Amino acid sequence: MAPAIQHGSLLEGDTVSPLSTRSRSLAWGLCFLLALAPAALRAQAPAPTGGEGSTPEGIQVPKPPFSEGIFPCTNCHDGKTVKLNTQRRQLKDMHDDIVLKHGPASRWCLDCHDAKDRDKLHLVSGEKIDFTVSYRLCGQCHGDKYRDWRVGVHGKRTGHWNGQKQYLLCVNCHNPHSPHFRPLKPMPPPVPPQLIQATKGGAR
Q1: Is the pLDDT higher at 46 or at 105?
Q2: DSSP label of 141
Q3: How far, in Å, CA of 174 to CA of 155, rounded?
Q4: What tens digit of pLDDT does each residue of 103-153 get?
Q5: Phi and psi dihedrals of 36, rounded to 5?
């Protein structure tokens, strides 16, 4: 019976055959292909159009649900028609219908809307973003919901399971100024079939 080879050592008479040149070439070639695979997959993925409804990340979203005639905001907030005023205050001349019930009482308009460019929102870092990527703004505080939204657990998305999808924005379901859903009046329970009376013509 041949003696067992000890781990980490060779016994007298044992030989080790190095990998052939062909085997080494195949191994290196496989490593090279594995390294290029992510880049190849990215190249095959549909590139973002950059047009209406597409974010820089390539996420397809519908138009933000602006109130009619309210956007672009710079129609009024151009620095001339409406002078820039960053003072926290109760709005009276315009937007007085907005009731802000979102977060602490100290929060107000310019915590999210950019003061100098009203057609943009801004993150805590100061980075300006379009309204079509408002989910990034929401995700700063609601990280768990943002994570679930990205994978399709929270919110709504339509499209192909293995292809392009359209994600509803947070503001398509939640009022950004008062995001809690209003109470819904419960509907009456369905009538059991045995209690439905037949009517003329056979209809029930």
Answers
A1: 105
A2: T
A3: 10
A4: 877 788 999 999 999 999 999 999 999 999 999 999 999 999 999 999 889
A5: -85, -15
Name 110's bridge partners. none
**CA 191 – CA 40 distance, rounded (Å):** 58
User: Could you tell me the pTM of the whole model?
Assistant: 0.61
Residue in this structure with the two tokens 């070439």, named with its chain if needed: 25
Per-residue HEC secondary structure of the chain comes to: CCCCCCCCCCCCCCCCCCCCHHHHHHHHHHHHHHHHHHHHHHHHCCCCCCCCCECCCCCECCCCCCCCCCCCHHHCCCCCCCCCCCCCCCCCCCCCCCCCCCCCCCCCHHHCECCCCCCCEECCCCCEECHHHHHHHHHCCCHHHHHHHHHCCCCCEEECCCCCEEECCHHHHCECCECCCCCCCCCCCCCCHHHCCCCHHHCC
204: its two tokens: 């029930």
Structure tokens at 78: 């151009």
